[in-house]
């Protein structure tokens, strides 16, 4: 008899989970453990750096090896009398939030591997030595580290497929649909964590360019747009190069610094967005000009 389609997908989930646990074992029990041992004894790399590279991989490995894989295996052995996996995946889903931390840390981890490979030859040699082993299948540490980042989207795809192939009256339909919804939420949570981290990183870079003025540094601000602008001087019909940063709550009118030590700009004026008006001017001599008027003052500006 032909195996039902949904069983094939459930078996694929089990097989990929087994391969995934092997990969996690390699990351946690081989790379992390051996690099940590080296950090403690050889002092070639600080222990803190090794911990930062591998983030919470140990928790992820233990969860999959000791809970999810055995549960899945048991379920597939009983498939003929209990053809369902939806409930097992529902148990798994909340724990996948652990991935948020690992995924957020991934870029930083890769940067640390590169930086410390240049700084510490013994660190690089140990990684190269592990990478030569058969278990690594000629792939780099960075390549293996990418696997947890890709695992949640993989669950989502397999489960979508599984739900699609389920017969309408399947006893697993309700559970499987609920499980898919939960996995989808976790994937969204993970993506939102990355987006928020990127937003804060970009914001920090902007604050550094502005010289970290206390009253401007606020993590809740959102940068909307930035760019060069010409300031019109009505007195002598001349223009001078300025720079604008538009946030959700304020407009910063800045002057580029000639000597760029530290900050790149000096904030000349800060205008509240609340109550601000922008009006286009029809000036034949100076095209693309507009007025920005706020509580603080009015500026006459020209865009490129």
Automatic annotation (TrEMBL):
Residues 5-193 form the DH domain. It comes from the Eukaryota. It is found in: Cytoplasm, Cytoskeleton. Keywords: Cytoplasm, Cytoskeleton, Metal-binding, Phosphoprotein, Repeat, Zinc, Zinc-finger. SUPFAM superfamilies: DBL homology domain (DH-domain), PH domain-like. Its main location: cytoplasm. One of its GO terms (molecular function) is zinc ion binding. Residues 222-304 form the PH domain. InterPro entries: DBL_dom_sf, DH_dom, FYVE_RhoGEF_PH, PH-like_dom_sf, PH_domain, SOS1_NGEF_PH. Pfam families: RhoGEF, SOS1_NGEF_PH. GO terms for biological process: cytoskeleton organization; filopodium assembly. This is FGD2 protein. It comes from Drymodes brunneopygia.
